[in-house]
TrEMBL record:
Gene3D superfamilies xrefs: Vaccinia Virus protein VP39 (3.40.50.150)
Keyword Methyltransferase assigned: yes
Ranges for domain Methyltransferase: 48-139
GO terms of molecular function: methyltransferase activity
Protein name (Swiss-Prot/TrEMBL): Class I SAM-dependent methyltransferase
Keywords (A to Z) from UniProt: Methyltransferase, Transferase
Organism: Streptomyces prasinosporus
Annotated GO biological process: methylation
Keyword Aminoacyl-tRNA synthetase included in the entry's annotation: no
Length: 217
């Protein structure tokens, strides 16, 4: 566990939630189906970056369990500690993915499950482009978000105050395409986390591939 991050609002939220976050989203069939989509396409021993890895379940656990080399990155030291215990086959780092060094063409796949929502729109756009540069040609990026047309919206998530920015669905799709990705499939669902303070939320899952050798700048 390497602590490269300073304290941030997102870290405070997820430090407070801890294992409650995993429990709230454990019944997400669409998240597990998304992971199966990726697992069906990865070659043996692929290197995968899990952005916003949380408790390590289900994403890092599924990938490591299938024999892939997983690097999970999260700003919450509490989440990183939980993930390190729960998924000993993965590597987890406490860091801010916005500033963490990423080597070009170093990953076969990148997972970004709901990790962008507490970043500004400009930060989200810049990060997606950074993540695409870290993909090898032919690699995959799976992104899930809450597709709402909001910026710097003050809300409450599972009892925690949050400031959220996001894109409407078509704008999120345009964002990943603009970064040089081909969207192979998309799925929109309504999901209610299993938590007394949670509300139903729309979710968008995008399954993308980096084709060829040219990437958007």
């Amino acid at each position: 566990m390497v602590d490269e991050s300073g304290r941030s609002p997102a870290a405070a939220v997820f430090d407070a939630l801890g294992g409650e976050y995993e429990k709230a989203f454990a019944d997400s069939a669409v998240h597990r189906a998304s992971l199966e989509w990726l697992l069906d396409r990865l070659g043996p021993g692929s290197r995968v970056l899990d952005v916003g890895s949380g408790t390590g379940r289900p994403t890092a656990a599924a990938l490591a369990g299938a024999g892939h080399r997983v690097l999970g990155v999260d700003v919450s030291p509490v989440m990183v500690e939980i993930a390190s215990r729960q998924v000993p086959g993965g590597e987890f780092r406490c860091a801010d993915i916005r500033t963490m060094p990423l080597e070009d063409e170093s990953f076969d796949a990148v997972c970004v499950y709901f990790a962008l929502l507490q970043m500004s729109r400009a930060e989200q756009s810049a990060l997606v482009r950074r993540l695409v540069r870290a993909l090898r040609p032919g690699g995959f990026l799976v992104l899930a978000t809450v597709p709402l047309d909001v910026e710097d919206f003050d809300g409450v998530f599972m009892g925690q105050a949050v400031r959220v920015s996001s894109f409407a669905a078509q704008d999120a799709i345009a964002l990943v395409r603009g970064a040089g990705l081909t969207v192979l499939s998309e799925q929109s669902v309504m999901f209610t986390p299993a938590h007394p303070d949670a509300r139903p939320e729309p979710q968008l899952f995008l399954h993308c591939r980096l084709d060829g050798t040219e990437q958007a700048g």
